[in-house]
Design goal:
This protein is mostly helical. It has three helices and two strands, in the order H-E-E-H-H. It has a two-stranded antiparallel ribbon. The longest helix has 35 residues, at 69-103. The protein is elongated.
């Protein structure tokens, strides 16, 4: 990976390249698995925050419905879909963790 981060500049007439290497302090162990793990964790956080936002929106809609049946049904659907979204995200996390542990890839929850 360090070869990908190095820079080669051709020098003058004899065209012997000058190699500029990466410093030893820069970690080069970034893998595709770590990148995918980070992206999945970010997607889970985003999904949880979206569900929380829909819970608040559905609750406010429920309070403001003032007994109107149509508004109550709409707010009930919003809250049910928010719960359903959390359940789907939880199941997706479990499925991904089962597959990654079976394949020996870094685990999403424990980070091992």
């Amino acid at each position: 990976m360090k070869e990908l981060l190095s820079l080669s500049i051709p020098q003058g007439a004899d065209s012997t390249p000058v190699q500029i290497q990466t410093p030893a302090d820069i970690p080069s162990g970034v893998s595709l698995g770590a990148l995918v793990t980070t992206l999945l964790q970010a997607a889970m956080v985003f999904g949880i925050l979206m569900s929380l936002g829909f819970f608040v929106y559905g609750g406010l809609h429920w309070v403001q419905s003032r007994g109107d049946k149509e508004s109550l049904n709409k707010s009930r659907r919003i809250l049910i879909y928010a719960v359903f979204g959390l359940i789907v995200m939880s199941l997706a996390l479990v499925i991904v963790n089962v597959i990654t542990s079976a394949l020996g890839v870094q685990n999403l929850i424990s980070g091992n």
